[in-house]
Amino acid sequence: AIPQAFYTKQTGAEGIVTGGAGGVWISAIGHAAALFGLKGRVYSVRKPGSDHAWGDAFGRVWGVDVLASPSESTRVGKLQHDRQGPDSGSIATALAEAYEEATRNPEVKFAIPTLMGHTLIHQTIVGLEAQRQLAAVNEAPDYVIGSIGAGSHFGGLIAPFVPARIQGRDTRFVAVEEASTPSLTRGVYTEESADAAGLMPQVPMYTLGREYSPPGVLAGAMRYHGVAPIVSALYREKYISAVAHGQVESYSAGLMFTRAEGIVLSPHAMYTVKEVIEQAMRCRESGSADTILFTVTPAVSTESTPYDALLDGLLHDEKPEEASLKKSLSRFIGRN
Hints:
Elements: H1 2-10, E1 15-20, H2 23-35, E2 39-45, H3 56-62, E3 65-69, H4 75-84, H5 91-104, E4 108-111, H6 117-136, E5 143-147, H7 152-158, H8 162-166, E6 172-178, E7 188-193, E8 202-207, H9 229-236, E9 240-245, H10 247-261, H11 267-286, E10 292-293, H12 308-311, H13 322-329
Parallel strand pairs: 1-2, 1-4, 2-3, 5-6, 5-10, 6-9
Antiparallel strand pairs: 7-8
Helix pairs in contact: 1-2, 2-3, 4-5, 6-7, 10-11
């Protein structure tokens, strides 16, 4: 966020606009905007059944204008809001709204939080720190497991360990998808736009197609139609494997982790924990003493917990929207 805000300031623009799905990116871009005296606006995925966006409370902290996406402030957002309803948003839609505003208003510049190579490279600090901590105790990971939406965080975690894998070390990288948005496990490898409206340049990725409308699961950051080009290339070359888990099993695993470790997890971290537990059980059954590397992020709300719907018996799994998926993928028939 800080480099993008810096270069925005260098152009003489007054503000920076972006899309996202939660408080982490809102805080990052808000802080960056404040450092350089920029106005900030974030189109953030709307919470299901709510007028509020994910992370809007953090917008107030940083003085950032947060709009629930799809909004009625852009042509892209209004069209989707009217045709598909207020809960049809995704990171791709939020990015489309932000990009549209930047193209129509010369006083603001667009910042992207994920997918592109520069955002993944910034995230490698996570993997580098993990690598140093493991080296301090003479360990190296046998498995690196992480949840995946567009893939920047996952890519940043695994990137420092990829050279050793290419050179022959049998480190296994496992990307964990939301079952309703299986970009790797059911997507196609092609060129596609990062946003839902096709306004941004196309890049090579595994994708369900930008027209895919994912169900309104609570892990908003995982509702994205494509995966970062770097991660997609590694998956295509079979350096990465992928699995998909549903909400109920992931949240149940997260609750188990919370009660054991004392950390209330963010929604996407629960999917990571679900697969980590599965892999740990497989290791125990086989008698192997493998080292599993994973990261988690805590929940940020103090008024409620991500487990409320699970504990109230209201949480249910979402399956892929097959009609939407078929229509979206049909655009690529004959392309590859």
